[in-house]
Design brief:
The protein is an alpha+beta fold. It contains two helices and six strands, in the order H-E-H-E-E-E-E-E. The strands form two sheets. It has a four-stranded antiparallel β-sheet, with no helix packed on it. It has a two-stranded antiparallel ribbon with strand order 1-2. The longest helix has 8 residues.
């Protein structure tokens, strides 16, 4: 995350903070996994709990959303930050220069450090 902070510190726009919504899939398991515990997890392949973005920063897709345009590894530049949608411009590939909307995505990890 340190490299991200260095890059963002060089961009002169206001940061927008996105926080994850950490809940358990099974409602009766909520007593075993309090929100504070879920917030403390840093799982591979998952975005950080608190994500700060600025207009102009480069981002990369971690999931396939709309293949072949928005797939894992697609590089984009943030154009507009809204509460549940990020507008971005594709930086590489056959769709270079095209503006897209990235919705807030529920993510459920498949690999857990506990069972």
């Amino acid at each position: 995350y340190e490299l991200n902070n260095i890059i963002q510190s060089n961009i002169q726009s206001e940061a927008v903070t996105y926080k994850s919504v950490d809940t358990v899939v099974e409602a009766d398991e909520a007593v075993n996994y309090p929100t504070e515990f879920l917030n403390s997890l840093d799982l591979p392949g998952m975005p950080p709990r608190i994500l700060q973005l600025k207009i102009g920063v480069p981002i990369i897709m971690l999931r396939n959303i709309n293949q072949p345009k928005l797939c894992n590894g697609t590089r984009l530049a943030v154009k507009k930050l809204m509460s549940n949608i990020i507008e971005a411009t594709i930086l590489t590939g056959p769709f270079k220069g095209e503006d897209v909307h990235i919705p807030r995505i529920p993510m459920i990890p498949t690999v857990m450090p506990f069972q």
